[in-house]
Automatic annotation (TrEMBL):
InterPro entries: Homeodomain-like_sf, HTH-type_TetR-like_transc_reg, HTH_TetR, Tet_transcr_reg_TetR-rel_C_sf, TetR_SbtR-like_C. This is TetR/AcrR family transcriptional regulator. PANTHER family: HTH-TYPE TRANSCRIPTIONAL REGULATOR BETI, HTH-TYPE TRANSCRIPTIONAL REGULATOR RUTR. One of its GO terms (molecular function) is DNA-binding transcription factor activity.
Length: 214
């Protein structure tokens, strides 16, 4: 008697509507974290996303999982902006400028308070996308320096720290009203990075290691 091997079940793929719901949740969470801070109730995020509470918890079992997804998604878009800048074959400093302005629009710095508390900032997903961003930004800076357009006494940390500070209004009342000043002030900062430098900088360039120890 010949036996018939059981048919293998294909791994189920998320339905299109489930993927859309997940994206809506992440988008709503990002908006509300920027506007109101990291402690916004998950029920309010569900309401903004237009989904039920159960849908939020089905996708993200706890707040940390949602926070991690938001941070990773923002950093992934920042990495893609850096890749676009590196793909440009024109002026190296203009590519750097476009990256900084695009990264500021992602408001990644407004998510910094969420790294406090129980959030695992060393989660493998976060470490991977962080390493990708760091490598790409350093490559953009190295190219501008090699072209003689970026002052040599500026480090990775100088660029990212100041860009973060300038694009991070405090969460809460009227935080979004300052948005109209962000790109103006970023351009003032970027103009100060151009070579040749008009004055020496005190101290030493801020490195990636300096940021991690801060």
């Amino acid at each position: 008697m010949q036996t018939v091997a059981p048919e293998r079940r294909k791994a189920s793929r998320p339905r299109a509507d489930a993927l859309r719901n997940r994206e809506r949740i992440v988008t709503a969470a990002r908006e509300m974290f920027v506007e109101l801070g990291p402690d916004v109730p998950l029920d309010e995020i569900a309401r903004r996303a237009g989904v039920g509470n159960a849908t939020v918890y089905r996708n993200f079992p706890d707040r940390d999982a949602l926070v991690r997804e938001v941070v990773c998604s923002v950093m992934d878009r920042t990495a893609r902006a850096a890749e676009d800048a590196l793909a440009e074959t024109g002026d190296a400093f203009e590519a750097l400028e476009r990256f900084v302005h695009t990264a500021a629009d992602e408001r990644i710095s407004a998510l910094c308070p969420m790294f406090a508390g129980t959030f695992d900032e060393h989660h493998p997903d976060l470490e991977a996308v962080r390493t990708r961003v760091e490598r790409l930004v350093q490559e953009i800076m190295d190219r501008a320096k090699a072209a003689g357009q970026l002052r040599s006494d500026v480090g990775f940390g100088d660029l990212m720290l100041v860009a973060a500070q300038l694009s991070r209004p405090p969460a809460g009342a009227a935080c979004l009203s300052a948005d109209r000043f962000v790109h103006r002030h970023l351009q003032l900062f970027l103009d100060g990075l151009r070579a040749p430098a008009h004055s020496p900088l005190p101290g030493t360039p801020v490195t990636l290691e300096d940021l991690r120890r801060a």
